[in-house]
Automatic annotation (TrEMBL):
It comes from the Bacteria. Belongs to the SusD family. This is RagB/SusD family nutrient uptake outer membrane protein. Pfam families: SusD_RagB (PF07980). Gene3D superfamilies: 1.25.40.390. Keywords: Cell outer membrane, Membrane, Signal. The lineage of its organism: Bacteria, Pseudomonadati, Bacteroidota, Cytophagia, Cytophagales. It is found in: Cell outer membrane.
Length: 590
């Protein structure tokens, strides 16, 4: 769709300008052609969509998260591996394109409501641009004009977070009030509901950031942002016409959202769609089912433990849960678990044949191998072949934004619980605790994730957000706004291995899948993967071990230290950009 937008824009500019080239300069002809008609505004505004994340951006977006074991430790949390020389993201090209449009969309020959609609789109994208910048760098220069190469403001310093985010909120408010599009079956356009959805997302982030990142001394302003988040999410819930997808029942309705060719329109609000006619695909299968192409992201056991039992009780309240094998622990759990990782009777299609598909240890380090974005046909594994549309925003997120904002404000009720967390858990096959908010805090969540939170509802909302939105790109930003960066230090642990040299049938289909050893047996079983967990391999410390040496949880890269420093809550300003403009300074600690 983005390719079509750009092609139409260029074609429109060239075609409209040709007839006047003999009378006025080409640049003036092009400018007049764009800004003198509604069609011209539409074509120009379509270029803003290039600022949305691509499908491949989304499917990789939780590569850095506390629950994600991966090929290498992220440079950001390796001491001395990341700094201003490695930093990036200080680019302002997209902003000039937006500001130029806002400055020039003033032709009185175009009806005022039409102009306001397209300026609303431009200001929406400006808000997204600045939110991404503030989230990454904190204070940034606020620029609301299309600067030329001689403009002295190119060398201005940074404005305060308060000033910039107030400007972002003003842009979002203008967008939600003036964007006229209220429906879009393609799920590729910014509608009033999508604008409110982003407002909900951004205001929740800013409100909780100000509440928990106390060094900024903005706690007194958090309530304003959380109240705005509630209002924006309510607007979507009341007027958007969206609902949770339940087609296919509790066993399929969740994963269907991520593998459908066309967006599931009752829940998906915005999507990066494929277009086979234009050879536009994504590479989800290649990235997630490759030993070399992707990062081999696998969920950790610490996080998998947060998935509830089907009766609504915590899995970690079960006696002996720490030593349950993979085959035992995945049974009777929240049905989003088998729709997120390979487990149970999961199968794939290989050349037309349906085959059992247990976790593959050339693709996973922990045994918890994600399937959320991947198609079940192995044809898609070897390149950019995926034809599933990738969700950028969906209704479930809005419900969680609403629940969390109200819980943070202290106004969360049983009725709120029922229509948010309760509804999400009901869709996941959970039967207990759906109509009343909890009264007892889960000790596992408190001790392992959120020791500073005592409100049972808020703990459960955070649990629910982690599970429902896993691998969709929310986790690291959530840790930032909750000030829980220390969770990035967690051990990358996998499933429990009861003994060395004992074959394990991970999907219980009667065929053994994996053996963990210290000394490789002379005779090996056909079709079984053998994993070396000795202390060293060829004299080098082994990154794959068992926590109790001869049994226990798999651990990955525990020999490489990960250390969180509070300076990581903001990225450093790239060195080259500071050399060009010393006035922008540097973030604390960098």
């Amino acid at each position: 769709m983005k390719l079509q937008h750009i092609g139409l824009l260029l074609a429109g500019l060239l075609f409209a300008g040709c007839s006047e080239l003999e009378q006025i300069p080409e640049s003036t002809a092009s400018k007049n052609s764009v800004f003198s008609s509604e069609r011209g505004l539409e074509l120009y505004a379509n270029s803003f969509y290039d600022n949305l994340p691509t499908a491949n951006d989304i499917i990789r977006s939780d590569e850095m998260a506390d629950f994600a074991a991966r090929t290498q430790v992220p440079d950001l949390i390796r001491d001395g591996a990341y700094g201003p020389r490695q930093s990036s993201g200080w680019s302002w090209t997209a902003l000039r394109n937006i500001n130029y449009f806002i400055e020039n969309a003033t032709n009185p020959a175009i009806p005022a409501d039409v102009r306001r609609h397209y300026i609303g789109l431009a200001r929406f994208f400006r808000a997204l641009f600045y939110f991404d910048k503030v989230k990454r760098f904190g204070d940034v220069p606020w620029i609301n004009k299309a600067m030329g190469v001689t403009d002295q403001d190119l060398y201005k310093g940074r404005d305060s977070r308060v000033m910039v985010m107030d400007s972002v909120l003003a842009d979002l408010n203008y967008a939600t009030q003036n964007i006229r599009t209220t429906s879009d079956n393609s799920r590729t356009l910014i509608t009033k509901s999508v604008a409110n959805g982003y407002k909900s997302r951004i205001c929740l982030f800013e409100g909780t950031f100000r509440k928990y990142q106390t060094s900024y001394k903005l706690e007194s302003t958090a309530e304003k942002w959380l109240t705005e988040a509630v209002a924006a999410s309510e607007a979507v819930m009341n007027d958007g016409g969206f609902s949770l997808n339940e087609a296919g029942g509790t066993d399929k309705s969740y994963r269907q959202l991520f593998i459908n060719k066309t967006p599931v329109t009752n829940e998906i609000m915005l999507s990066a769609v494929v277009d086979p006619a234009l050879s536009v695909f994504n590479d989800a299968n290649w990235w997630w089912t490759s030993a070399t192409y992707g990062a081999r992201v696998s969920l950790t056991r610490t996080f998998v433990n947060t998935y509830l039992n089907l009766d609504g009780t915590p899995f970690t309240s079960k006696a002996g849960y720490k030593t349950l094998t993979f085959m035992e622990e995945v049974k009777g759990r929240d049905k989003r678990l088998p729709q997120t990782i390979r487990s149970g009777n999961y199968t794939r299609v290989n050349g037309g044949a349906v085959e059992p598909a247990p976790p593959v240890f050339s693709y996973t380090y922990t045994g918890y191998m994600p399937i959320k974005w991947t198609l079940d046909d192995t044809y898609a594994d070897g390149g950019t072949r995926n034809d599933n549309s990738i969700s950028i925003m969906r209704y479930a997120e809005i419900l969680l934004d609403y629940a969390e904002s109200k819980a943070e404000l202290g106004t969360f009720t049983d009725a709120d619980w029922t229509k948010t967390v309760g509804a999400l858990r009901k869709r996941a096959g959970i039967t207990g605790g759906l109509t009343a908010k909890p009264t007892v805090a889960d000790p596992y969540l408190q001790a392992t994730y959120f020791p500073g939170i005592s409100d049972p509802s808020l703990l459960e909302i955070r649990r629910e957000r982690g599970i429902e939105l896993a691998l969709e790109g929310f986790r690291f930003p959530d840790l930032i706004r909750w000030k829980r960066g220390e969770l990035m230090e967690q051990v990358w642990n996998g499933f429990y291995v009861p003994a060395l040299d004992k074959p394990m049938d991970l999907n219980e289909d009667g065929k053994n899948d994996v053996v963990f050893y210290k000394v490789k047996p002379a005779t090996q079983l056909a079709g079984v993967t053998y994993i070396n967990v000795a202390e060293t391999v060829n004299g080098v410390p082994n990154p794959q071990r068992l926590s109790n040496d001869t049994s226990g949880e798999l651990t990955w890269l525990s020999n490489i230290p990960r250390k969180w420093n509070d300076k990581y809550y903001l990225y450093p300003i790239p060195e080259n950009d500071r050399l060009l403009n010393p006035a922008i300074g540097q973030n604390p600690g960098w």
